[in-house]
Amino acid sequence: MNSYDILQKKFWHRDKSNRRDVTHPVVVCLYKRQAEKLKNLIPTKVTSILDCGCGNGFFQTFLSEAFQINCMGVDFSSKMLRVNPNAGKVAADIAAMPFENKYFDLVTCSMLFHHLSFDKQSAALKEMRRVARKYIFITEPNGNNLANVIFALFHPEERRLLDFDLRYLRQIFKENNLTILNAYVDSLLLPNATPRFMLPILRKLDKTALASLFGFNCNVLCCVQSKQ
Ligand SMILES: C[S@@+](CC[C@H](N)C(=O)[O-])C[C@H]1O[C@@H](n2cnc3c(N)ncnc32)[C@H](O)[C@@H]1O
């Protein structure tokens, strides 16, 4: 295990009960919209979902709601899983998940890849691909966003977000022979940092080109079938 992986393990295994919970208005606004947008982008029916790095359940909760399915979550931190209100959750590392091949129609991962060393990112994507039958979706911080850059400079555990942008995400999908269906930047909301009073104005700005150009997160949806 390299030093970045050791740092992550220490960071995520600390007590996380002071984080926002899934009912916070900023969290609801961001993740509800994100899950609904994903549902609209997916061309065929999805009947099972796994959310990798589900943590305290932000994305998992709203995936379950949008797709009307009990989404399963996996995370290596028992501290994060303890504050996750969803019933389906398993403690495991994303690079070694206890599921059969092609077990889930859709496998998602929100805000986890930048917490992995380069080698581990590759192992994680391979493992997501192994358990996915149809689609993989990843959302990560946009390293081209100035606020994200400043945040990364002050938080060592976030440092690798500086690598991430749409180009980087596209590249790791292509290296794994995954067919990209959609790639986009969106939202000026930060789930754990945007103050509640800014929600009305940012909600309006999120509907403008400002969010798709300078948003905080970059997203890629792909199909797991290999290119011929
Ligand atoms: C920034 S949080 C994101 C939580 C949630 N997905 C969200 O969007 O709010 C990152 C999560 O990834 C988990 N994580 C980090 N490294 C992991 C690994 N190697 N395997 C499984 N989970 C991991 C952490 O425990 C944490 O819950």
Describe what you observe in this structure:
Helix content is 39%, strand content 19%. With 228 residues, it is α/β, with parallel strands linked by helices. The protein has one domain: Vaccinia Virus protein VP39 (Rossmann fold), CATH 3.40.50. A 7-stranded mixed beta sheet has the order 3-2-1-4-5-7-6, with helices on both faces. The longest helix is centred in the N-terminal third of the chain and has 17 residues. The protein is globular, with a radius of gyration of 16 Å. The mean pLDDT is 94. It binds S-adenosylmethionine.
In short:
By secondary structure, this protein is an alpha/beta fold. It is 39% helix and 19% strand. The model has no long low-confidence stretch (mean pLDDT 94).
What's the CATH topology name?
Answer: Rossmann fold
If strands are numbered along the chain, what order do they take across the biggest sheet? 3-2-1-4-5-7-6
Number of strands: 7
Q: Could you state the order of secondary-structure elements as H and E?
A: HHEHEHEEHEHHEHHE
The overall pLDDT, averaged over residues, is 94
**Second rung of CATH, namely the architecture:** 3-Layer(aba) Sandwich
Measured as a percent range, the helix fraction is 25-40%
Low-confidence stretches: none
Characterize the main sheet.
7 strands, mixed
Question: For the CA atoms, what is the radius of gyration?
Answer: 16 Å
Q: What small-molecule ligands were found? A: S-adenosylmethionine
Number of domains: 1
Give the number of helices: 9
Q: What's the CATH class label?
A: Alpha Beta
What is the molecular shape?
Answer: globular
